[in-house]
Amino acid sequence: MSLSETDLRAAIAREMPGVRADLENLVRIPGIAFEGFDHTQVERSATAVAELLRGCGLETEIVRHGGQPAVIGRKVAPAGAPTVLLYAHHDVQPTGDVALWTSDPFEPVERDGRLYGRGAADDKAGVMAHVAALRAFGDRLPVGVVVFVEGEEEYGSDSLNDIIEAHTEKLRSDVIVIADSGNWDIGQPALTTSLRGIVNLFAEVRVLKNAVHSGMFGGPIPDALMTLARLLTTLHDEDGDVAVDGLVGREGASVDYPEDRFREEGGVVEGVKLLGHGTITDRIWTKPAISVLGIDAPRTFEAANALQPAAKAKISVRLAPGDDPTSAYAAVRAHLEKFVPWGAQVEVTLEAGGSPCVIDATGPAYDAARAAFASAWDGTAPVDMGVGGSIPFIATFQELFPDAAILVTGVEDPYSGAHGPDESLHLGEFERVCLAEALLLKNVAEALTN
Ligand code: BES
Ligand code: MN
């Protein structure tokens, strides 16, 4: 006999304390895949995830291809039943300045119904949502599962294609659940149906062979920081729209995101204007964005009276669905080479790129998911939403398994603060996410079993 919705509700309620405790243990592991961080911590977090999957009765292995370790756990499908791939990532973003956190990023603490810590939402709660659903079914899982937990998503998933290529047959599935996005609001679930792509690049300008006295040479000779600043301002027009030719962008996102809510959620300082044209959702979902993430330059307190010879910026370009990272990089590079002022040299190099994606969210798996979400949120149906962030490998899965339905879910809400200080998880919503995933597996089994 298969478990009923009532059984699954009770099972999730029963499992939540253990799920919470295991989530806290994962948050205590500072597994950051970025260069220069202690990668033994990423190993520890892979081992911890493998242990959790083994505990769910999955056959588990840790795999790698030159990069950080991913975990694959599998349980074969009952006869005639579909196989569902459950994706999340166990690596996390660096903390940034720890002084900006209210409490230790790697010591989870609850405040006002939220669990604070780096990775508490993105994406260790995604890992635990999969574990929660598996625990709720125990040995009565009605589908086959492949759990795939990546170890370097936040660092650009460099070795992911090789891992996927080496393990394609193990990953083959009918439905793919990617628990690495979020919901529209607290109390309002969503399915994510479009994501932007990304091109991160460096632009380094050079004007001098060496630093020279700013009094003896300042005036006729441009310094590298002024030169770089001028160059960066050419990336947008006066209204703040992206001014690079050759990037894809369109208007027409259908969800209303009131400007005051957007300002509030983003923490925009009073008086600051928003850039560009179109609705807010057009601007974050279906248009490109260009931001400057960092500049290598002398720090002000130690800057000498000298003209700087060179300066380097890290520039992040978010790509609208329909764009392509190769052509977008070429477009931005050509722009920077064309507009560099004062005859300065500019060297443009690519850090990493990833494709945008759009999902045609129609068919039985999507119906199964929508029904599961509506039940888990006590009758509130999910909205389809885009997100401005990127999960580049979704496009890889789309190419590899064109017939698989891809459900992009997740635990984040507008106040999760992913990538920033005081990242947190709404614990009430987290329980709904866990329940929704269990119901989703049940509904998918019912809809797709032959
Ligand atoms: N979970 C995010 C993706 C995301 C962002 C989903 C915003 C929903 C809303 C993911 O972990 C992430 O941050 N991805 C990186 C990708 C990059 C490293 C290639 C991103 O968007 O910066
Ligand atoms: Mn993530």
TrEMBL record:
Q: Where is the Peptidase M20 dimerisation domain?
A: 203-341
- Tell me a GO biological process for this protein: proteolysis
Recorded GO MF terms: metal ion binding; peptidase activity
Kindly indicate whether the keyword Electron transport belongs to this entry: no
Q: Matching InterPro entries, A to Z?
A: Cyt/Met_Dipeptidase, Peptidase_M20, Peptidase_M20_dimer
The answer on whether this UniProt entry bears the keyword Hydrolase reads yes
Q: Which UniProt keywords apply?
A: Hydrolase, Metal-binding, Protease
Protein known as: Dipeptidase
Q: Which organism is it from?
A: Paractinoplanes tereljensis
